[in-house]
Amino acid sequence: MTKAIVIRQTGGPDVLEWSETTVGEPGPGQARIRHTAIGLNFIDTYFRSGLYKAPQLPFSPGNEGAGVVEAVGEGVDWVAPGDRVAYVGTLGAYSEARLIEADRLVKIPDGIDDREAAGMMLKGMTARYLLRKTYPVTADTTLLFHAAAGGVGLIAGQWAKHLGATTIGTAGSEEKVELARQHGYDHVINYRTENFVERVKEITGGKGVDVVYDSVGQDTYPGSLDCIRRLGMWVPFGQSSGPIKDFELQLLNAKGSLFTTRPTLFHYIVEREELVETANDLFDVVRSGAVKIRVNQDYPLQEAARAHTDLESRKTTGTTVLIP
Ligand SMILES: NC(=O)c1ccc[n+]([C@@H]2O[C@H](COP(=O)([O-])OP(=O)(O)OC[C@H]3O[C@@H](n4cnc5c(N)ncnc54)[C@H](OP(=O)(O)O)[C@@H]3O)[C@@H](O)[C@H]2O)c1
Asked: Which helix (H) or strand (E) holds 72?
């Protein structure tokens, strides 16, 4: 018998129940892994609240983890019992052990520990596709990244700096502003006390940035659109303050024929080759020291509710892991 966090009905953090579960033997193409660390992500709160629909109730939440392979099913020859592995993207990570489709697993290279791996798969791969695929950032790029001291934000700042970009971040306290400064951001705006649109205009000499990566949503929209140069790009990729409603397409015209997409990591890593390429790129920047993973909080897995409360009340910075 193993234990897992289970959601029987969606709602606030108190719906996260520590329950007994059974994990069977892996079927064809599957592996059974024992978690050593589990990544906490804002998306976990969307599934918990019901903003995103889980395929069924009850379910175990969580989209990112690291652990050791205990057993593999028929046809799996790329991972074996004893391998250290990590993954992103299939619900069920808030558990001591689980079954998973083995083609979603990547081996954790030497030099990266399990806590770092668990905390960077989803957030780090997101930073990677945003900066390298959605809007390919170069040394000529000036970008604005909201929630710069958050999990995705601290990784993205360092990675964008590594690519040579001019980086502007926003954050919600002076302490977070300082943290973001230490993680690749040339300019950081406290958007609780300063008007970020005016500050971006000042910093860019009135021109605006090439791209805005906006995971805050409701509170930063439509200000984000006013920060972008003509023909630039707006990338709304999250909704930490609530979803954007009633978006008027005409606004893109009015603000300078802007481009936009509402992307998700999961569409960038559908094929195994895409997953492996993205993970390897991430492991490379971490192992080279260009990007450091800040695991700033950890919680026992059974206290996942406390972790959710802290994440949603803006108390966390960088990456958070749950330890089974
Ligand atoms: N589309 C994708 O592929 C993808 C993948 C990963 C993550 N995401 C999105 O990226 C965002 C960041 O994820 P994360 O896990 O790294 O979380 P996070 O950034 O560590 O936490 C969210 C941060 O958003 C800021 N925020 C602003 N207004 C807020 C509000 N009303 N309530 C709560 N937080 C608020 C807070 O920072 P300040 O106090 O500094 O404002 C908070 O710390 C989330 O929106 C997530 O859904 C999207």
From this structure: strand 64-72
